[in-house]
User: What shape does this take?
Amino acid sequence: MAVKNNTSPNETIKETVLQKFPEAGFEEFQGQLSLRITKEKFAELAKFLKTDRKLSFDYLTDVTGVDYLKMEREPRFDVVYHFNSFKNNWLLRVKVGLPEEDLNLPSISSHWRSALWLEREAFEMFGFNFTGHPDLRRLLLPDVFDGFPMRKDYPLRGRGERDVILDMK
Amino acid sequence: MADPAYQLKTDRTILNFGPQHPSTHGTLRLVLELDGEIVIRAEPHIGYLHSGFEKLGEYKSYNQWVTLSDRMNYLSPLCNNIGFAQAVERLIGVEIPERAKYIRVILAELSRIADHMVWLGTHALDIGAFTAFLYGFEARENLYVIFEHTTGTRLTTSYTRVGGLFRDVPHDFVEMVKNFLKYYPKVLKELHGLLTRNRIWIDRTRNIGVLAKEDAINLGVTGPTLRGSGVPYDVRKNFPYLIYDRLDFEIPVCDDGDVYSRYLVRMEEVEQSLKIVEQCINDFPDGPVSLFNQKLALPDKEKVYDTIEGLIHHFKNIMPGHGFTVPVGDIYDATEAPNGELGFYLVSDGSHKAYRLRVRGPSFVNFAALDHLARGAMVSDLVAILGSLNIIAGELDR
Assistant: This one.
């Protein structure tokens, strides 16, 4: 593990990010660092994480969403990104809160092409609108499918799917 | 592409590839835009095996979901079991007993060999080398005998539990694994003899589907596909888990980034897995395979039948609405599955079920790179490229 100057990687990431983004929030759970940022600042932060020499988070591991409807939290959604820095061997989680009324978030597929499919999946499962994504269509489900199945108010069985498949004929 | 001066004016052809094509191994579909025999664009249409296991994860308790993890990458279900159980253990913050760690490592590495053998067999079959298929499948059969003897089933193993294992390995497990270690290098040698310097194999795989290092990182591929492009990233080395930090093994890397280098990386990985298994089996500790904490791990059957506490703990663990609880928080935990980084992102609200269960399967991200790899390739090479990625539809379609 790349631990330099006896400071833990998490502390180094915190310091570096806070210099540029003082409004970023951090939390640690079981040794893993999460960064929370507002959606307005997110595009800038993503670019910074990739291009900063010290951090160089060059690898996007995962993009997904969480619907906090049942935990009664504001805002309702989180978009969760996992970045990996091959140079330093660090992992960083970035969370962006999205309220139900405005699900627009800038796409990062221009920096990491792996985001192309991951964002498409997050779009079809939660309905996030990744602005600037070149091809934001449904990926796993039929194109005419209505509804966003990974949302908490979408039931495990029932609503929608049968009608949709009948309509397809 | 050919010299423009010789190019005739042709129409583009749209060709539908799959979902029922033998080389797609499962059901995946590509829509190819062709100029003659050259692929201009390949658009994957996926989702035929969509089973919604992420959604189900929000309705099943942690130990119930282990059975669903078998159905993800069905060539190496044990790796999925181990990855998931480990993520939950990390969320709770417990360490499993030493013997359980050793068993998990041995079974994960044997699964890796089995996965690579099936991959090699079917990949070679797609390209036209039938013999390697039989050799690969015979080796896998020997491993499946061990898995069946240990877990009770060949495919739907469901062997791990949160806090350890479902049961200890049988008494002749060590002997069986040792026999396999003795017999297997011979098979590997024969496979190398069949393919590695085979002129036809090299012609079909060298400089096909080349993935440059920068593209590999940018496209997010993992596993042998990433290491075949010269990036020495392996979760076992970079973020060691279980006992991998104590074991002596190498991460094979190949710089060319073509189908042949992915083949070489996988073959070398099999050698390294053998080395790992040998070290573990020579140093196999005794002891329990589950945590003593019976509020977390299921008690032994003898305790359940003979003591009242055992029975209570058993019921508390099994009954719906009870079970163990985990702290509120979220965790990302990854293991190195045969095809790459298998990550689990778990969000817990403190109950006995996951609030959100996200699987970052390697097949999904690797398959997204197909369009990049296929452009400019011949249709017949597309089969080789698709085979070299080892896409497992169950994991891809989630």
